[in-house]
Amino acid sequence: MHVFVTGGSGRIGSAVVAELLANGHTVLALARSDASARSLASAGATTLRGDLADLAALRDGASQADGVIQIAFGNDFSSPEALVRAVTEEGAALAALGEEVAGSDRPLVTVSGTPAAAGRPSTEDDPLPTGGPVGGRSVSVLATLQLASRGVRSVAIRLPRTVHSDGDGGFAGMLTMIARQSGVSGYPGDGSQRWPAVHALDAAVLFRLALENAPAGSAWHAVADEGDAVRDIAAVIGRRLGVPVQSVAQETYGALGPVFAADQPASSAFTRATLGWQPTHLSLLDDLENIQP
Q1: Mean pLDDT, the chain, as a whole number?
Q2: The dihedral of CA 103, 64, 113, 33: what is its sign?
Q3: CATH number for the domain running over 165-196+226-266+281-290
Q4: Which residues share a beta bridge with 199?
Q5: Given pLDDT bands bounded at 50, 70 and 90, which one contains residue 78?
Q6: Residue 5, beta-bridge partner list
Q7: N or C, which end of the chain is more exposed by having fewer CB within 10 Å?
Q8: Closest Cα partner for 49 from 39, 67, 36?
Q9: How would you class 76 by CB atoms within 10 Å of its CB: exposed for 0-12, middle for 13-18, buried for 19 or more?
Q10: Does pTM surpass 0.85?
Q11: What dihedral do alpha carbons 224, 230, 232, 236 form, nearest 10°?
């Protein structure tokens, strides 16, 4: 399959590109900079210059492909306004990609977060939240899944709070960055809230399996660790960096404060049983041992 990939030079995307190429697919990857283009080309992908806001480039890439994987997302979490802009940009991109592949039965794979379920790990059957700081993202993903009625094999991979590799990535990586800057490895509240996690290389396998086999309108959980307590994550970070570990104000995390404070474990039992996905790489807590002081 010839696959158009956005976000292919990031932590998750680069793993996805490598996984696709290693399993007989070819890749056309969107490249927003010369550095990204060089990285993607060296990995074996063909590149198309543009970014997520370039809807003409997105349509062009999708028109050339047998399937699409949309991973790119703005990384500016500095303010609620910046987060809204990133969500809006992603929604417009998904709409453009969906229109391009409509009626073709080609796969369109996109991403969301895992939902919350009171008192238990969430499952693939639980609905995505459409309110809160990133609720607009769920709206866009749900609209994409509804394209199944228009001849699109639309699929959503629900990614956990932390997609990690080499001791970095996701929300845990943000905790590490803040600890380096502040000299304190912090967590909101009492730190008992749980975050699910997955290694980037394991997530990449699920993207490929979904691209190849998942039915239209389906959602899958890329979850290896159902939920580590945030205070346990902070404890490893603090030990590796040699800084104290303590509770800090939720406001420390800006626009993502409410998300950081929420308890949100997630299960992937259905995904594993149905698609045959089996994570094999390091757990989050083990991977955080790779943090360099």
Answers
A1: 95
A2: negative
A3: 3.90.25
A4: 164
A5: low
A6: 29, 69
A7: C
A8: 36
A9: exposed
A10: yes
A11: 90
DSSP string, 31-67: ESSHHHHHHHHHHT-EEEE--TT-HHHHHHHHHT-SE
Helix (H, G, I), strand (E, B) or coil at 25: coil
pLDDT digits (tens, 9 = 90+) for 47-73: 999 999 999 999 999 999 999 999 998
* Coil vs helix vs strand at 168: strand
> Tokens standing for 153?
């094999």
- Kindly tell me if the per-residue pLDDT of 77 is higher than 70: no
Q: Give the integer Cα–Cα distance in Å for 237 and 245.
A: 8
Among the residue ranges 30-34, 215-219, 221-225, 250-254, the one predicted with the least confidence is 250-254
Domain 2-162+197-225: CATH architecture, name and number where available: 3-Layer(aba) Sandwich (3.40)
